[in-house]
Amino acid sequence: KGELRIQSLTFEDAGMYQCIAENTHGIIYANAELKIVASPPTFELNPMKKKILAAKGGRVIIECKPKAAPKPKFSWSKGTELLVNGSRIRIWDDGSLEIINVTKLDEGRYTCFAENNRGKANSTGVLEMTEATRITLAPLNVDVTVGENATMQCIASHDPTLDLTFIWSLNGFVIDFEKEHEHYERNVMV
Q1: Domain C-terminal end among 130, 153, 173
Q2: 136 and 126: one domain?
Q3: Is the pLDDT of residue 106 over 80?
Q4: 20 to 30 A from 154, CA-CA: which of 32, 100, 125, 187?
Q5: 116 and 60 in one domain?
Q6: Dihedral through CA 53, CA 56, CA 61, CA 63, nearest 10?
Q7: Contact in structure between 46 and 75 (CB atoms under 8 Å)
Q8: Which residues are bridge partners to 120 per DSSP?
Q9: Residue 34 domain-assigned?
Q10: Residues 140, 151: Cα–Cα separation, whole Å
Q11: What is the DSSP letter of 24?
Q12: How many CB atoms neighbour CB 95 within 10 A?
């Protein structure tokens, strides 16, 4: 196939490689550089978020994305407790931590540990729970005669520490109230 395979790479394998293809009609060359990358895990460029918010009863994914070569092995702790995969907690292959059905007991300091044959590093963030946003009054189906006006309402409850934004869409496309102000009007009730 004209394929070159190198197993168990070392730094000495780095360099410029050249493939030469030859037949009775001539000869052709192609070059490629092989760089060997090896570094201990580091969170300098991509630290964990210091504050992670999760909705009560919802699902949260805490990312852990250090720079490392080769790919590190990951482990997680909450405070001093080492976390393992279970019914509500899962550590993904990419290092992310997933928690489902979040409760108040899940709040706390989470640390991601990354280790490869070059070294190890960790990064920590704090998980805080918020009240889930809920639609308390959903828009109702409306039959309107052509040319008349129609009003639709949407009311939601939310955590008071967070801002709330309403987004309306028509058939899956978000309505731009600035561009379509002659047809649509948004009324915000406090």
Answers
A1: 130
A2: no
A3: yes
A4: 100
A5: yes
A6: 20
A7: no
A8: 115
A9: no
A10: 10
A11: T
A12: 22
Domain annotation covers residue 9: no
* 100 beta partners: 59
Domain range spanning residue 179? 132-189
Q: Are residues 115 and 148 in the same domain?
A: no
How confident is residue 182, by pLDDT bands cut at 50, 70 and 90?
Answer: confident
E strand or H helix at 166: none
Tens of pLDDT, residue by residue over 3-56, are: 899 998 888 999 999 999 999 999 999 999 999 888 999 999 999 999 999 999
128: CB partners within 8 A, 6+ apart? 51, 52, 53, 54, 107
Query: d(Cα 186, Cα 176) in Å, to the nearest integer?
Result: 10
- Does this model's pTM top 0.85? My answer is no
Provide the number of structural domains found in the chain. Answer: 2
User: Residues 108-160: pLDDT tens digits?
Assistant: 999 999 999 999 999 999 999 998 888 999 999 989 999 899 999 998 988 88
Residue 117: both structure tokens together: 């044959």
